[in-house]
Structures are given as structure tokens and as C-alpha cells.
Predict the 3D structure of the following.
Amino acid sequence: MWFFSKKGPTPNESLIGEEGKTKRPPNTAFRQQRLRSWQPILSPQSVLPLLLLYACIFTPIGVGLILGAKTVQDLTINYSNCGKDAGTEDFTDIPKKLVHYNFKHKVENRPKWKRTVPENDDGMPYCQLKFEIPDEIKNSVYIYYKLTNFYQNHRRYVESFDYKQLLGKPLSKDELTTACRPIRGEGDKAVYPCGLIANSMFNDTFTPTLFGGDDDTEDFQLTNKKISWGIDRKRFKKTKYNASQIVPPPNWRKRYPDGYTDDNIPDIHEWEEFQVWMRTAALPKFYKLALKNETTHLPKGTYIMQIGLNYPTSLFGGSKSFVLTTISAIGGRNMSLGVVFLIVSCLSGLMALIFIVKLFFQPRAMGDHSFLKFEDEENNSTNDNDLALREIL
């Protein structure tokens, strides 16, 4: 039948349009991909200088990063179980696995803790951490809290706030973004501030004073001013809500048992602890700044930090820690970056040594590319298409 004998277009005919115009791209070096290019030949003679250069550059950088990190002095105490393990009468030693410190001199006395029992059911239990600073710490001194196994990077959690509400606009419950669900409103009132981030805010309290733990140690004052980023202090504005329009988030009810009044609505423009918490962390283990002193030195001695215990970590299987630290030109005490630089420099040096041995004992002569010849694709394109079509058939 006719449909068995009908032939398709030849390769040359398929490039011709209805009006007799060819569909072949113009015969230029750019359209036919014949532009000249530089292709380096990786020989031992050319690679060896690069590897030695990398080793010479990365080694001092890695050593400098490690030495800079070693100058940082810090103390970390995991106080998650202070509410049930610490004594109420006298200070007792904190288990070694819960304490980590790096100081220039040896610590003679292990850190201790003690728990204070509230006088009534509404009172706040406190954890007192007693620790020794074996040498004077130059300014600046920073106090952080550290949380583990807390995933602030979850997509729904990160988006759970209303930017316009944080700018001070009095939005109604229905005007709030749906990203705040399920903490968006109660009845006809809006939750302020709405969302999961604000509701889960860290609320353990750190006293702004390191109390002297003996007669020879004076109190050391700290501040919670300018602990947030400058851009965050511009993002948060005092709200224009009145108390009848809003309710606090569910986890804030202990602080506001009777709800908001016109006198106790939080001013998030001045509340820098809230601003610090609202900048979500990228990893499940993170530090957030609570207090600092950038003007005076911290003398050596024994100090006591009093922490109000409010934040439960057992709900998410994590831990909370008190961190006292300094900083260096490269930031905190982080050896990882310096170690990575040293690993790269060692690998570069090792590969350079292997290439040297290979070049010395088993050299290889390079070929001459001038003897390579290629056929003209432009003149033989039709023949190549016909040959390829015949091979397919």
C-alpha cells in the first residue's frame, strides 16, 4: 500500500524550509563551534608549582587560625539538670562531662552548682553556678546561652511570624499572615507577637552581674544593651496595639498571667533578647548572646552566676548551657577552620611529593600536537550525514 512505500525526507531535504530557505546555521566559527580555545596540558611540570604554592599559602593560614583560636578563653557549663541534680543547701561539684573550659592557667577548683527552692508555687527556681576564673581576662567578655537539638531552621518555624506586626502595625487576627498558624489569635483578639518563633522564646533569666564567690572577688557588671544586630534593632518597632486588641502567646502566660494591660505590653524595639531570639539559627546546635561587657577586664577570682530556670529542654530532647567566652580576630574558639586549611596543605604537599617521585623514576615524553590533523567538517558534512543515515538503516 502507499503508506509502506512512502519515503521520508533526506538529511539535506530536512534542512530546507517551505520557502526553499536552508535551516542550517550560518557557517561561522561561533555558530559552528569552531572558536579557538585554550586547553591547558596538565603535566607534572605544570602541576607541581601549583601544589607547592597551595601548600605554602594554606599552611601559615591554618597555623594562624589555630593559634588565634587558642587565645580564646571560655567556660561552658551544661545546667539542663540543675533543677533536679543540684543540692539546695550547699554548692556541689558539677559532673565533669557537663563542664568544658579553656584557660591560660590551670583551674584549681571545679565548678559547682546549687539550686534555690521557691518560697511559693508561683516563684521561680534559680540555679547558681559557681566557677573559678584562673587569670585575668582582657575585655571583651560575653555571656551566651547554648541550645542543642533545637531545629530553628524548620521551614514552617522560620516563616512563622508577621513582619508588619513586628514593625508596629496593629493588624487584626484576620489580617495576620497565615504563616503564624496555629498561634495567630484567640477569639476575636490577635496574638502579639504571633507565630511559633515568639511562642518558643528562650526565657531562662541571667542576672546582669557576676557575683563574687569569695571575699577577694568583687562583683562584675554586665549589660544586655546592643546584644542584637544593628539591622534587627531597626526591624522591630513599638506596637500601636492597645491591650484590648491582643493576647500574649500561650507560652508567655506565666509572665503575663492576667494578659496584657496598657502598661505591660512589651516594647520589642527595646527588648533586645527578643530580637536575638527572632534571628533564627541555621543549625540545631547554636549560641545566642545574652550579656556582655566590652569596657573592663574580668579579674581572676571565683564568681557566681544566677540563672532563673524557666525553659524546659526535655520537651525536644536537647540541652541548655551557660557559656562565658572571649573572642579573637577570627571570632570564637573554633579549631575546625584551621584544621581544614592544614589538611588541604598536607594533601597538596603529599601530591607534590608523589609527582616528583613519579617524574624522577618514570618520566614520560610529551607528544607533539602539531602532527594531529583533522578533516574539514564543512566540506564533508553532507557525506557524514549520508554515512550516518546508512549505518542507521
